[in-house]
Amino acid sequence: MQLNPEATETDETIACARCGTPADGAPPTWTCSFENGRRHYFCDDCARANIRSIEGRLDSAWW
């Protein structure tokens, strides 16, 4: 899922919710998950390592 650069979200720096890697701008290849009313972004490495859990729609707390 690509991030929408026109979205009206806060101007906070986006970081991977799993490993904390900061994003350089809007990361078009990162995975976005909406859990418990919040968006969570995951870098390419963390998304690849947990792809089965993501596809199974498990919350990141279960990984």
Task: Give the SSE layout.
Layout: E1 31-35, E2 38-42, H1 44-49, H2 51-55
Antiparallel strand pairs: 1-2
Protein model, in words:
By secondary structure, the protein is of the alpha+beta class. It is built from 2 helices and 2 strands. A two-stranded antiparallel ribbon has the order 1-2. Strand 1 and strand 2 form a beta hairpin. The longest helix is centred in the last third of the chain and has 6 residues. The chain is globular. The two termini are 20 Å apart. 8% of the residues are buried. The mean pLDDT is 80.
Brief characterization of the structure:
The protein has 63 residues and is of the alpha+beta class.
Q: What is the element string, with H for helices and E for strands?
A: EEHH
* Helix run count: 2
Measured between the Cα atoms of the first and last residue, the distance is: 20 Å
| Parts with pLDDT < 50 across at least 5 consecutive residues | none
Oligomer: single chain
- Let me know the average pLDDT: 80
Enumerate the strands of the largest sheet in spatial order, edge to edge or round the barrel. Answer: 1-2
Shape: globular
Total count of strands:
2
Q: Main sheet, how many strands, which sense, barrel?
A: 2 strands, antiparallel
As a percent range, the share of strand residues is: 15-25%
List keywords for this structure.
alpha+beta; Small CPxCG-related zinc finger protein; globular; two-stranded antiparallel ribbon; 63 residues; single chain
